[in-house]
Amino acid sequence: MKKPLRTLCLKSLLATSLCSTFSAVAADTLASIKEKQSITIAYREETFPFSYLAGNKQPVGYSIDICMLLVDSLKRELKLPKLAVNYLPVTAETRLKAIAEGKADLECGSSTNSPERRNLVNFAIPHFFANVRMLVRNDTAIKNWADVKGKTLVLTTGSSTAKVLAEKAKTKDLKYTVVNAPNHQASFALLESAKADAFVMDDVLLYALRAESKKANKFTITGEVLSTQTYSIVLRKDDPNFKKFVDKELANDMINGTVTKIYDKWFKQPTPPKAINLEMPMNRILTDQLRFPTDQHLE
């Protein structure tokens, strides 16, 4: 039986792009980490379940666990079993700048890989895919995008949602008011207090915010998918050797099932500190990605 073209292409990509050998002194980031004997991870404080502070005020989450796999790989690669891990809190507005300016070596949160952002930073192969939709109160009549005419939509400052929404508005001739909030919790608060009619964001984050709310049954995630977003670890631009190292290690952990176990931990089981279970099955795109890791981007 002939193998599907997609399978052959992905296997070829994996063989040519992700299976190289690496020298610690060849990449600036690797050399810097070895010299300092430490790595700095930028994290988000309130982006459940990807990166947030748990009860002990330590960063935890799906993306944090994946970055810790990379830390273990670096310990082996650089022969630094006591490699120190430093954490740098960032926001949606400061996360890319922290990497570009060398304040952190990895950003481990829910950052979307986009062409505009690749002008400033680089990204590892995707470890999650999310769909842009909207969260509304059940007491509104909003069911789809045509219903937001004349309404107030809240967006989180620094997110990539604004561009996606603007493109949708052009094609559908939608007119609405936009308000911005500094983080996802603040955006949800505006929706909850009826100061906004809909919160537009990646569906997984909307599911998480709703699950955390004491009034979860009063909110609905609705609207056709505006776009599919690729979540990736953020890396410094113009350091291809470090990207190759990160991609190779991530690809290995995807293929051997380690990332699948991490996914189940954060999306199918109760999570700290409130034992929230998102009960979110893995979507088809991520399932394929974990079988055949690739650096292709959905724009």
Automatic annotation (TrEMBL):
Stretches of the chain forming a coiled coil according to its record: none
**One cellular component (GO) term of this entry:** extracellular region
Q: Which Pfam families match?
A: SBP_bac_3 (PF00497)
Keyword Transport assigned: yes
| BP GO terms, sorted | amino acid transport
Q: Which UniProt keywords apply?
A: Signal, Transport
Superkingdom per UniProt:
Bacteria
Question: Where does the UniProt annotation place the signal sequence?
Answer: 1-26
Specify the Solute-binding protein family 3/N-terminal domain's residue ranges. Answer: 38-270
Do you know which PANTHER family this protein is assigned to? AMINO ACID ABC TRANSPORTER PERMEASE, GLUTAMATE_ASPARTATE IMPORT SOLUTE-BINDING PROTEIN
Per the record, the similarity remark reads: Belongs to the bacterial solute-binding protein 3 family.
> What is the protein name stated in its UniProt record?
Amino acid ABC transporter substrate-binding protein
